[in-house]
Amino acid sequence: MHHRYEVRSPVDGFVGRVAGVTFTGGAAECSDPASLAYFRRKGYGVRRIEPAPVAAAPPPRPYDTKRAWVDYAASQGFDRDDAELMTKARLVEVLSASR
For every one of its 99 residues, what pLDDT tens digit does the chain have, with 9 covering 90 and above? Predict the structure, then answer.
């Protein structure tokens, strides 16, 4: 997986293409290693864009549907097919114990 980078042009407000990357308002996003090397050599500002943290999904309530529990199990890394085969009571038990 390639990381995304914000690239800042040395020319404020620049609009156009450089090294195959489109700039708007002096900024662009890029993940191509060759383009990033070019930008660094030429004095462009380059900084890695950190992915936004993903908020953990709250667990369903015990009275929610089995579908909600299966979806939650899948979001927690459980195999969806395995979760489908479990009863709702077992899903509640297993997922409540893993918190």
Answer: 478 999 999 999 999 999 999 999 999 999 999 999 999 999 999 999 987 777 777 889 999 999 999 999 998 888 999 999 999 999 999 988 766
Could you give the CA distance from residue 36 to residue 47 in angstroms, rounded to a whole number? Answer: 10
Crossing angle of helices 88-97/66-75, nearest 10°? Answer: 40
Residues 74, 76, 80, CA angle at the centre, nearest 5°? 20
Take residue 68 and report the two structure tokens written for it: 């909600």
The DSSP result for 42-76, as a single string, is: TT-EEEEPPPPPPPPPPPPPTTS-HHHHHHHHHHT
